[in-house]
Amino acid sequence: MNSQAARKPIMLTIALSKGRIFEETVPLLAAAGIHPEEDPESSRKLILGTNRPDVRLVIVRATDVPTYVQYGAADLGIAGYDVLLEHGGEGLYQPLDLDIARCKLMVAVREGFDYEAAVRQGARLRVATKYVESAREHFARKGVHVDLIKLYGSMELAPLVGLADAIVDLVSTGNTLRANNLVAVEPVLEVSSRLVVNQAALKLKRNEVQPVIDAFASAKAPA
Ligand code: AMP
After folding, report:
1. What is the mean pLDDT of the chain?
2. CATH class name, domain 103-190
3. Which of 81, 144, 150, 212 has the fewest CB atoms within 10 Å, i.e. is most exposed?
4. Most informative mutation of 21, 154, 170 for ligand 1 (most atoms within 8 A of CB)
5. Does ligand 1 come within 6 angstroms of the Cβ of 23?
6. pLDDT value of residue 8
7. pTM for this one?
């Protein structure tokens, strides 16, 4: 290696999504000495600089975080467990549950729909969801026959207009379900966000990556 290459700083790229995950990650980044130069809510930039010239943030859709990290376009990322299960986790090291953006993946139905009775009678249920893999596994485990309908958003609408008998969706406060006359009937999964690391970056950029993992581990909210 020539001396110029040896001096070149190694860039760390961290993939984050806007909203709750970004907001709850800011204190963890601060613990690692990383302060974003801009707020993604007010900036249209997709690559944000930080106080550290060797660290940048890329702002991507929550469901795309594992893909950016898997292919090494980002060295680290933060993604919900729901998103990681749908992605499959290939090429990702998952060292830390950060206990942020907590919520539950639940089965929900229209008020008045007797879900228990439908399951008891062995009815074939139509279930709309963005979380096809988690839903498939859940109903297979229960031995319930379902036709899964893949949606990309506004799942709550599906039972109201006859697209589905039930939905599988994330529930935090329950306000969205209540506002649409839906009730949660069964938990599928406890969800929180996790740190994911590209497996090659963990080896090749260990000196840069490990301090971030360690700082996140000591700063994360106590369980
Ligand atoms: P709530 O009304 O508080 O129960 O929130 C439900 C809505 O927020 C649904 O549309 C969910 O898909 C979404 N949601 C809740 N928690 C999360 C989370 N941790 N990550 C992503 N979306 C979430």
Report:
1. 95
2. alpha beta
3. 150
4. 170
5. no
6. 74
7. 0.93
Nearest CA to 175 among 152, 156, 159, 197?
A: 156
pLDDT of residue 3: 52
Atom number of ligand 1 nearest to Cα 102: 19
For the domain made up of 3-102+192-219, the CATH class stated in words is alpha beta
Pick the residue whose CA is nearest to atom 19 on ligand 1. Answer: 101
Sites in the chain below the pLDDT cut of 70:
1-7, 221-223
| Total Cβ atoms within 10 A of residue 97 | 13
Q: In what order do the strands lie in the sheet with 182-198?
A: 47-49, 55-59, 12-16, 76-80, 182-198, 92-110, 166-171, 125-129, 146-150
Give yes or no for residue 192 CB within 6 A of ligand 1: no
Domain with CATH 3.40.190.10 in the chain: 3-102+192-219, 103-190
Helices (H), the chain: 3-7, 20-31, 65-70, 81-87, 115-120, 132-142, 157-160, 175-179, 199-204, 206-219
For residue 220, the model assigns a pLDDT of: 87
For residue 19, how far is its CA from the centre of ligand 1 (angstroms)?
11
